[in-house]
Amino acid sequence: MTPTKPKLGQNFLRDAAAIQRIVNALGDLAGETVVEIGPGQGAITRALAARAAHVMAIELDAALAARLRSEFAREPVTVAEADVLDFDFGTASAVAGKRLVVAGNLPYYITSPILLKLAASHAALDRAVLMVQREVADRIVAGPGSRDYGLLSVTVQMYGPVERLFTFPPSSFSPPPDVHSSVFRWRFAPRFAQFGVGEGDFLRFVRQVFAQKRKTLANNLRAAGYAPGDVLAALVGAGVQANARAEALPVEQLAVLWKGLERR
Fold first, then answer.
1. Is 71 within the bounds of a domain?
2. Does one domain contain both 96 and 179?
3. Spatial separation of the C-alpha atoms in residues 41 and 55, rounded to whole Å
4. Residue ranges making up the domain that contains 183
5. Cα-Cα-Cα-Cα dihedral of 37, 41, 45, 47, to 10°?
6. CATH number, domain with residue 209
7. CA-CA 20 to 30 A from 99: which of 89, 129, 166, 213?
8. Are 189 and 161 in contact (CB under 8 A)?
9. Is 97 helix (H, G, I), strand (E, B) or coil?
10. Closest by Cα among 84, 113, 115, 124 to 186
């Protein structure tokens, strides 16, 4: 068979052992509805359909969506020809009667928008196992003090714990990409109430403090419009050194800093 030419940044996973590891990482799927992002030619879809009560495959490519409908016509698989950024996870969860499980090999060029879409849909989601470019996974799972720790790390981790699972080489895919791909698991359990911060306001603050990573927290906050005296007082109140950078602070301390600024 002639390989299908990839579209929309797709590289199809061909490694059977890798596919099983991804599906295994989702845990027990009996009775679960799994939303698969970017099923492509259906390699992971087959493994999911064998274990889950229902698979909702979201495929943007019309030709691939038609092929999937034909191949899985007798399986518990629904194929939605749609952009995942427009997909209504809340409605799908309501129809399923429970929170959804998510799996997917995310297209490299829209990884961050998809992650933000999932974060915004957290109330409808239980857990996700996702494959992304290794360097993106480095940023997602990074902790404070790491050069990879930044806006993406804090944003994703505020919606629940993440853990890197494994990494696959380019040879696991057809056609082989130019990069390694890492798989991580994300359990949706937002932490905003835990830290006493508002979701939208706190994430805007996080964008401000990481606006220019090479600048200090104080400089970024002053550039965002906070008064220098308020910035200094909030830093002292949060136990943060005046010359600290945002990448040094865990989310708990960022929350304390934000609340200190809000009081002023």
1. yes
2. yes
3. 14
4. 12-190
5. -140
6. 1.10.8.100
7. 166
8. yes
9. coil
10. 115
